[in-house]
Design brief:
By secondary structure, this protein is an alpha/beta fold. It contains 7 helices and 9 strands. A 7-stranded parallel β-sheet has the order 4-2-6-1-7-8-9, with helices on both faces. A two-stranded parallel ribbon has the order 3-5. The protein is globular. The protein starts with 5 loop residues before the first strand and ends with a helix.
Length: 207
């Protein structure tokens, strides 16, 4: 499987496994990592999770553009801190062309980031392909197909879907048939999360 060198990891919902999938990609590809918007600092950051669970060097991790305290949608967390998230503040970090950059979004594709823009607008601005993370369980077909439709309405290239959770062949086949999109990988629950297990998960699922 050939993955693009720039990947935006988004999801069908919050807490769907975007950071885990990002970690698998970072560990397997020795990739760079960037989380443009982080909310919920009081619960710890996704950047620190990647730092802890992968063995990439510090210079491969890029700082957030906006870091907000409350574990809320970006638009709501920003209001509480009197911050206005400005779409023009975002641009891709400079990464060598032959190396991979994983960009992790916040929440789902229609999460607002300010009064005018959604996560979709940020993805569109960065102009890189998306991997859509979905749950493998009941309800995923609707959530995934809605997200795929929105991405296509914005003309955002979809590299594929990554299903997170116990394997469900019926849901996988339905997503591929109705969504006309490939399920690139199915990531089962990991008993232990370390740089080695994340890299092995990449080898087992993406290669």
């Amino acid at each position: 499987m050939t993955l693009p060198k720039r990947i935006f990891v988004t999801g069908t919902n919050t807490d769907i496994g975007k950071t885990l999938v990002s970690g698998v990609l970072v560990a397997g590809l020795k990739a760079h990592y960037w989380k443009p918007i982080q909310t919920g600092l009081i619960d710890g950051t996704d950047t620190n999770w990647i730092r802890k669970h992968t063995d990439i060097s510090e210079d491969q991790i890029y700082p957030e553009v906006y870091s907000l305290q409350q574990p809320l949608s970006p638009h709501a967390a920003a209001v509480l801190e009197n911050v206005q998230i400005d779409l023009s503040a975002f641009s891709l970090p400079e990464v060598p062309a032959n190396e991979t950059l994983i960009v992790e979004g916040a929440g789902g594709v229609l999460v607002p980031i300010n009064e005018q823009h959604y996560m979709l607008d940020l993805i569109s601005r960065l102009a890189i392909p998306v991997l859509l993370v979905s749950d493998s369980q009941l309800g995923t077909i609707n959530h995934t197909l809605l997200s795929v439709r929105q991405l296509r309405e914005y003309d955002i290239p979809i590299g594929g879907v990554v299903m997170n959770g116990p394997k469900n062949q019926g849901n996988k086949e339905a997503i591929e048939f109705y969504g006309k999109v490939e399920v690139l990988a199915e990531i089962h629950p990991l008993e232990k999360i370390t740089p080695a297990t994340l890299a092995q998960c990449f080898d087992d699922t993406f290669t």
